[in-house]
Amino acid sequence: MIKGSCCCKAVQFELAKTPSFVGTCHCSRCRKVGASTIVFVKREDLRWISGKESVRVFEPISPYAYGRCFCEICGTSLGEILSPEDSFPIAANALDGDIELMNQSHEFVGEKPSWYNICDDAPQNDGHPE
Asked: Could you tell me the pTM of the whole model?
């Protein structure tokens, strides 16, 4: 089991399996909500331990399409942890342990700020990877 939580530990969950993908989004919105690096998980692998009721959703403003979840108490970004999809991204920063996966992709590199250097060999995409 891979445990995950917010900073104040009000929100706690675990994953039955290692996420299938790790990627970094450099769009301005992901940077603002503190969830640039994400992991993709399957709904069937997510088990809530506590605090699901403390998760709030920041609804997207056009042109963005996906709501971003966060702990209402401490503000920790949780990605799309309340998504109704079968597979969805959660913020890698919410995982408590090492998943032993390396970053596999960078998206929206054209929006990356000049102060951030990409220091791995993962493929880089101007938009979403195809």
From this structure: 0.87
